[in-house]
Amino acid sequence: MHSIRRLRALLVLLLAAGCLAVPAGAQPETDADENSAASEPPPAPMNEEARQNVNAPCLEPPPLVRMEDYQGPMQKFVGFLARKLERRAVHSPQYRADTMLCSLEVKDKLRLFAGDTFDTISLLGIAYNSALDHAANADPTFGQGATGYGRRFGANFASRTSTRFFTEFAYPTLFREDPRYYRLARGNFPQRLLHAVGHTVITHRDSGRHAFNFSEWMGAATGSVISNAYHPGNERGFGPAARGAAFTILTDMGFDVLREFWPEVARKFHMPFRGVRDSAGPSAR
User: Fold this and answer.
1) Model pTM?
2) Contacts of 162 (CB under 8 A, 6+ apart)
3) For residues 85 and 259, is the Cβ–Cβ distance under 8 A?
4) Sequence-ordered list of residues with C-beta below 8 angstroms from that of 62, at least 6 positions apart, any chain
5) The sheet that has 100-101: what strands, in order across it?
6) What stretches of 137-285 adopt beta strand conformation (E)?
7) I want to staple 220 with a disulfide (CB 3.0 to 4.6 A). Which of 97, 129, 190, 245 is the partner?
8) Res 117 pLDDT > 50
9) DSSP of 91-135, one letter per residue?
10) Contact 272, 77 (CB under 8 A)
């Protein structure tokens, strides 16, 4: 079981490493020719797409990218991946000293939790993890065959949903924290990497101020304990629960790194991203 969890964590970190292969601190035009570079937008053009809320001195985040924004290979998969990353990512408003991003109301946090739970990439991830568990015969009480796999998928879905409920809705509502990741999108590579990794410790409150990320740590711990109810064959005790919580935190950290460097990856491979424009013209957009 421990080796399987390490494999999952390694998979997330490898995905993040794919982003880090793109020079995050460099201009994204370095791989294009001079004419293409001249037509590229600024590094963070998504700022201009934010709109002022007429009822409050705050900015509404730009909308999610659409599937139609990408016309390359594996269009649906790339579009689903982009939405998975962008759903919980917003651009840091620090470039505006007199305003901030509008905070989420309770209904918005509930909508965020529901959308993330039934996202295609989330379901595919659960299916993949269930296949690993099934191949390793983790929790033998579930048995083998199609029935055993179905039980593992249901248990993993319930466990992940419970964790997501506490980290994205219940605790953010209780502690008035913003469950979204605030992308820095500027500065050199070490600064941005530290910012992404540090989100598991420091987060934004609904007021716009920074605070300890209670939602992440308490949500991971609560979800790890509750998962025993869905996995009767799990090890009990403090040690296994701590390892489960650490795995959740490490996975979320990897996704935050992906969210931070997603603009560079999107521009390099012409994937959908807020503000990304293809130099081929409007038809390519």
Assistant:
1) 0.73
2) 222, 223, 226, 227, 230
3) yes
4) 46, 49, 50, 51, 91, 274, 275
5) 51-52, 58-60, 100-101
6) 181-183, 202-204, 210-212
7) 245
8) yes
9) E-GGG-TT-EEPPPPHHHHHHHHHHHHS-HHHHHHHHHHHHHHHH
10) no
CB 239 within 8 A of CB 233: no
Q: Of 257, 243, 180, whose CA–CA distance to 14 is shortest?
A: 257
Whole-angstrom CA distances from 147 to 4, 17, 105, 142, 173 are: 21, 36, 40, 8, 37
The DSSP output letter for 59 is E
d(CA 33, CA 152): 50
- Report CA dihedral (71, 72, 73, 74) to the nearest 10 degrees: -50
- The string of pLDDT tens digits covering residues 28-40 is 333 433 343 333 3
Give tens-digit pLDDT for 198-207.
999 999 998 8
CA dihedral 112, 115, 120, 124 (to 10 degrees): 60
CA 277 – CA 271 distance, rounded (Å): 10
pLDDT winner (highest mean) among 42-56, 77-91, 143-157: 143-157
User: Measured between alpha carbons, how far is 60 from 49 in angstroms, rounded to an integer?
Assistant: 9
End-to-end CA distance of the chain: 45
